[in-house]
Amino acid sequence: MLTRSPHIRPGRLRSAALSVLAVCATLAALLLGTGAPEAAAAGSLPCDVYAAAGTPCVAAHSLVRALYGSYGGPLYQVQRASDGAKKNIGLLSAGGYADAAAQDSFCAGTTCVITEIYDQSARHNNLTVEGAGGAGAADVGAPADALPVTAGGHQVYGLEISAGMGYRDNSTSGVAVNGQAEGMYMVTSGTHVNNRCCFDYGNAETNNKDTGNGHMDAINFGTECWFSPCYGQGPWVQADLENGLFQSDAGHSRNTSDTGTGPLPFVTALLKNNGQNHFALKYGNAQSGGLTTTYSGGEPTTSGYAPMHQEGAIVLGTGGDNSNGSIGSFFEGVMTSGIPTDAADAAVQADIVSVGYGGASGSAGTLNPGAEISLRATTSCCTTDYVRHQNDAGVLSSITSGSSALDRNDATWIVRRGLASGSCVSFESRNYPGDFLRHHDYRLYRQPMDGTAQFRADATFCPQSGKSGTGTSFASYNYPTRYLRHYAYNLYIASDGGSDDFDSSTSWSDDVSWAVSSPWAP
User: Fold this and answer.
1) Does 2.60.120.200 match the CATH number of domain 10-31+40-68+123-355?
2) What pLDDT digit, counting tens, does each position of 58-94 carry?
3) Which of 160, 321, 332, 510 is catalytic?
4) What is the pLDDT of residues 190-212, one digit of tens each?
5) What are the Cα distances from residue 145, in Å, to 104, 110, 363, 428, 489?
6) Is the domain defined by 372-517 classed in CATH 2.80.10.50?
7) pTM of full prediction above 0.85
8) Catalytic: 205?
9) Is there a catalytic annotation at residue 242?
10) Looking at the chain, which residues constitute the CATH 2.80.10.50 domain(s)?
11) How do residues 484-494 score in pLDDT, each as one tens digit?
12) Which of 119, 169, 240, 242 is the catalytic position?
């Protein structure tokens, strides 16, 4: 049940309720239409909703889409490795979705990193690659193509953070300081997390150092349990208020039902704090449903947190002192002036759901980039068996219409342009955004893309006519005489004859020939 934040004026509730109606109208239009819209109705995007509720955005960051119905500027900047040139990536139309094709064209034949994420608000609180801090060396930019995703029916990119990556702005305008009230949310992923400090988005110190209790006010998302007990396995939405990841005023969770979001591919994480005596945490499935409040109560009881002492910098991907051992995914996020109403939060969640994060691309059963597929074995023993991931390993498994939703998702892949070569392909996991099928020591695994040349090569496969005379065979990009093969229900890149059992010539041509079929999970 959602709990109402304190000190909310009735007029703000009425304004937010009107925003809810606007979002509902947008959702109805989506359901009745024949395809994804280029842009949502003006006035229904997150920062429009919050402005109508009297708590305007002072920061609005997204690589995926506009967060104001009228916004038509750039979303982020990329820099390519080949010549150091930079390019701003904008929108297909005002209020719409990212022009990812512009990135693809600019970065073709080389690699790009994200160097700046633009603030869509009038405050211009842009995020650049974070410098050195009290707990970490200077960060590097995230690879621009590491997290392809469908949003609004368009192929776009999110931001995938690996350890040593982060973004920051230490000279902001309008962000809460010294106990002022604020709210914030981000859309992230429960499939790309760890227990290292600290995957944060929000208010931080202006000097990249830990300056004491209450000097931060940021959303944290991960599996690090700072104060025991934490319930379940996480990941949890927590408040990084400096010197602790808080699930309640006591630090540890007071909510036994908050076991974390689990591996949801898309998560809405939300924090609001009046800066004096109250903060609240919420989360939701960014693909469906509403928000759940996991905590709403007093500030931490330890000294320094009531009132808060925020400094007003903005951090993304690290802790306030640049503790940068965490991993995480970021698609969009905003910060507000003042505490949004619960009605406004609900309207924003409805808008996020309407985006259709991770939705089907509309293309299936081909090797065209963006198409969803399943790969079926053609060997006579195994014609109901498919390439899937299980416990991070690539295996061959029987999949039928009666298989569980999890099994069918695990056996579904999204075709992407080859991470190492545009003339080849890579296979992104359908239910683990940003994770790709790659080989390591000749075995196949599902792993998150880290941007390295090694990973790119290991995750790239070049299609050929099936070696058995049927289907398609996939040569390893960096071991071109080895092909994707099933052997004893495991997956390898295998040569035709060799010292390892999986290189056996017996049925090799059949085992490396695959039927590219319609996906089990659209």
Assistant:
1) yes
2) 999 999 999 999 999 999 999 999 999 999 999 999 9
3) 321
4) 999 999 999 999 999 999 999 99
5) 8, 11, 20, 12, 31
6) yes
7) yes
8) no
9) yes
10) 372-517
11) 999 999 999 99
12) 242
